[in-house]
Amino acid sequence: MKAMSAAEATAEVFFTAFEALSKKEKRAFIIRLLQHKEFSEDLADAAIMDKRRNEPSRSLDAYLSARADRR
Questions:
Q1: Which residues contact residue 34 at a Cβ distance below 8 angstroms, ignoring those fewer than 6 apart?
Q2: Is the overall model pTM greater than 0.90, yes or no?
Q3: Across residues 62-69, what is the average pLDDT?
Q4: CA–CA distance from 64 to each of 32, 52, 53, 58 (Å)?
Q5: What confidence score (pLDDT) does residue 28 get?
Q6: Residue 32: how many other CB atoms lie within 10 Å
Q7: What's the confidence (pLDDT) of residue 64?
Q8: What is the DSSP code string of 40-69?
Q9: Confidence class of residue 70 from pLDDT cuts 50, 70 and 90?
Q10: 21 CB-near residues (< 8 Å, 6+ apart)
Q11: Number of domain units in the chain
Q12: Is 43 part of any domain?
């Protein structure tokens, strides 16, 4: 088993604490997280990336070229 980084260890501690909460406490915590604008935006971005994970990708140059052709 690979050693955890400090960030991974901290995340593990927080996740373990979250798992120990009651259902009501978990709900209150999640609501609080979703009220945090930056976290909410990051979560939405992560959901979009996960949903589009299997879509074909293209390079920035290809995107810019296609965009320029549309003008």
A1: 40, 43
A2: no
A3: 91
A4: 39, 20, 21, 10
A5: 97
A6: 10
A7: 93
A8: HHHHHHHHHHHHTTTS----HHHHHHHHHH
A9: confident
A10: 29
A11: 1
A12: yes
Residue 35 maps to a domain: yes
20 Cα distance to chain centroid: 22
Give dist(CA 21, CA 38) in Å, integer: 24
Which tokens go with 36?
A: 């945090």
1 within domain boundaries: no
- Rg (the chain; Cα; Å): 19
Considering only CA atoms, which of 44, 45, 40 is closest in space to residue 30?
40
Give domain status of residue 26, yes or no.
Answer: yes
Domain extent at residue 32: 6-70
Residues 59 and 45: their CA atoms lie apart, in Å, by 19
